[in-house]
Specification:
about 60 residues; alpha+beta; 4-stranded antiparallel β-sheet; 2 helices; 4 strands
Length: about 60
C-alpha cells in the first residue's frame, strides 16, 4: 500500500536550481536568500524556466 501512495505523492513544493529557491505553495522565489518581488507573470515565467531542462549546445568559435 505504501508503494501505491508513493506513486501518487506530490513532488516537493520547493525546487532549488543554483541559487534560486522556488516555493510553489507560497508562490515565492528567492535568489541568494533574498525574496524576489515579482508580478504574477514574472513568477510564472521564472517558474517555467526553473522547471525546464537545461539545453546545452556546442559553442562555435
Amino acid at each position: 500500500m505504501l508503494r501505491r501512495l508513493q506513486k501518487f505523492a506530490a513532488p516537493s513544493p520547493v525546487v532549488r536550481v543554483g541559487e534560486f529557491v522556488l516555493d510553489e505553495q507560497a508562490a515565492a522565489i528567492s535568489w541568494f536568500g533574498q525574496p524576489l518581488n515579482l508580478t504574477r507573470y514574472e513568477f510564472l515565467l521564472l517558474k517555467t524556466l526553473l522547471h525546464a531542462p537545461v539545453a546545452s549546445s556546442p559553442v562555435s568559435s
